Amino acid sequence: MKFSSAIAFLALTVQDASAFAPASSIAPSTRATTPLFVAADLERPLAEETASNGEAAEEMDLKSLRRDPTPHAKPVSFATKCASLYSSKPGAERALAPPVYFGSTFLLDDAGHGARLHEKREAPYTDDDGFVYSRWGSPTNEAAALQIAALEGVDNDNDPRGLGSSLLFNSGMSSITASLMAVLRAGDHAIFPYTVYGGTHEFVSDFAQHWGVEVTFVDAAGKDGPANYKAAFRENTRVVYTETPANPTMRLTDLAGVAGVVDEFYGKADNVVGMHPTERKRPYVMVDGTFASPYHQKVLDIEGIDVSIHSATKFLSGHSDVLAGAVTSRSEPFLHGVAKVQKLISAPLNPMDSFLLARGLRTLDVRMQRHGENAIKVARMLEEHPLVQSVFYPGLDSHPDRELADGIFRSGRDDDMEDDDDEAPPQTYGGMISFIVAGEGEEALRRARNVCENLRVVNLAVSLGGVESLCEHPASMTHTMIPREQRVAGGLHDGLIRLSIGLERAKDLVHDLKNSLDMCDDEGCDTGF
Questions:
Q1: Alpha carbon distance 497, 433 (integer Å)
Q2: Can you list the positions of beta strands (E) in 271-419?
Q3: Per-residue pLDDT for the chain (529 aa), expressed as one digit of tens each?
Q4: Residues 6 or more apart in contact with residue 8 via CB below 8 angstroms
Q5: Is 266:220 a contact under the CB 8 Å cutoff?
Q6: How far apart are CA 26 and CA 20, in angstroms?
Q7: How many angstroms separate the CA atoms of 245 and 250, rounded?
Q8: CA nearest neighbour of 430 among 367, 362, 381
Q9: Which of 13, 25, 64, 258 is the most buried (most CB within 10 A)?
Q10: Which of 293, 317, 249 is nearest to 479 (CA)?
Q11: Which residues does UniProt call coiled coil (predicted)?
Q12: Long-range CB contacts (< 8 A, 24+ apart) of 200-203?
């Protein structure tokens, strides 16, 4: 054997020794390239599963053990899903952390196996028949996708683990654009809120409208939001989109109300299996819930909500070291449509970032609770400061949509586990705050910039959801692509500052922000210590 051939052979053998075992020794359900990801079975010890067909447990090969993928007799909590969701197949050598599969392509059993996989190329990836090419999905990508599907509360009708219900993208923006591209065509109409992430606004204003899609912007916030959406409905409306909490104003959308007026006008959704996603008459109701995360808000539990979108770069991964996006749905036509777009534009999440996302999800529960506990302390200080004109935080009684807040922010609570009140975490309202400094126009803009620049513990940077606290000025940074008139109409004033509250000691954050504000007066701000 030539040296180069021997090296290739050895690498393949180390990667998957079972690929060269006799066919009779490998059960079809234990494909080495395909990990199984299910919640850890808390109801019975694994030892009970070590005997099959009368064989004694000690006579069985340990590598043949696997966990039962059927649902648990008792539901497990959100916190337990975060910490203990992953369990591996034998091919992953029973690793407690999902292995990183860097391979771009995968071995096929035979030509027929390859044909089956290619026939499914427009479907969301699942692990029932293996993988073919990393642009179409990989085991590491699927590990994180299954975690998110479980945390979103989505169970696939054909698989209790929610296989194929979540798709992971290489950024939050790619998850948004792919979702819209999957269902919108020239001549269609879509409705968006005035207050929306700048990148989303830019896409629908510049690209979608150039492709012949009509776009209407409405005030989506508060009790009047559903009526404002309804007033914009047309026969050709295909997407009803919202962000809640809104970026960066923290206004809340009445999701049940919006879904209700959509049903009233268009009727219930007709998610016929095999139907093209553009054939549905009822608009797709899409929700970007990045600011709340599934810890607080499971939007797919609300009847009539079709699609949940997250920038997984933010709270889901939680460490400011990953670009990722997630799309979750129960609609089979939509999932097929967005999966096709994902594969064609090469937007899946790569294996390493999938691994980092899966790692971050394990601490989502504890991180989100700390974010919220810190944020309410910061928000209360800001509300009392004389140079702060307004504070927008859902946990404050002064928030304009306070009546909606308790119904949205669930703080890790599960509807089917309400009997465990003694273990329920304290109610929190997320880690995002926005506030407006005193002044108008250029004066407010200059003062807001100075407040951001004078901070020493809180970092001046865009993005959000990491362990470190961040401060940014939307009118100068993340929302500059939105015309000023529309920004102001949506509540995004020149003096508005957005905070992402991290995991530091709350008193350090309070002191830092107070000190920066104290350096300002009616004439302006000092620019140094």
A1: 8
A2: 284-288, 307-310, 325-329, 388-392
A3: 554 544 444 444 334 433 323 332 223 333 333 333 333 333 333 334 444 444 443 433 333 333 444 444 456 788 988 988 765 444 566 777 888 999 999 999 999 998 988 887 666 655 567 888 998 888 899 889 989 999 998 865 445 445 569 999 999 999 999 999 999 999 999 999 999 998 999 999 988 888 999 999 999 999 999 999 999 999 999 999 999 999 999 999 999 999 999 999 999 988 787 889 999 999 999 999 999 999 999 999 999 999 999 999 999 999 999 999 999 999 999 999 999 999 999 889 999 999 999 999 999 999 999 999 999 999 999 999 999 999 999 999 999 999 999 989 987 877 655 555 567 778 999 999 999 999 888 888 899 999 999 999 999 999 999 999 999 999 888 888 778 887 877 778 899 999 999 999 999 999 999 999 999 865 666 654 4
A4: none
A5: no
A6: 10
A7: 5
A8: 367
A9: 258
A10: 249
A11: none
A12: 200/173, 200/176, 200/241, 200/243, 200/288, 201/479, 201/481, 201/482, 202/481, 202/482, 203/173, 203/176, 203/177
Neighbours of 304 (CB within 10 A): 18
CA distance 401 to 27: 55
Whole-angstrom CA distances from 165 to 145, 341, 356, 382, 402 are 8, 15, 20, 41, 32
Q: Is the pTM value of this prediction over 0.70? A: yes
Phi, psi of 370 (to 5 degrees): -70, -40
Give me the residues paired with residue 285 across strands: 240
CA 375 to chain CA centroid, Å, is 21
Question: Is residue 360 within 8 Å of residue 322, measured between CB atoms?
Answer: yes
DSSP 423-442: GPPPP---SEEEEEES--HH
CA distance 393 to 301: 24
215 forms beta bridges with: 190
Burial-class residue 196 by CB neighbours within 10 Å (0-12, 13-18, 19+).
buried
Q: What are the structural domains, with CATH classification, of the chain? A: 32-151 (no CATH), 166-352 (3.40.640.10), 364-525 (3.90.1150.10)
* CA distance linking residue 407 with residue 289, whole number of Å: 14
**What tokens appear for 284 in the block?**
């797709």
Which residues fall within 8 angstroms of residue 265, CB to CB, at 6 or more apart? Answer: 230, 233
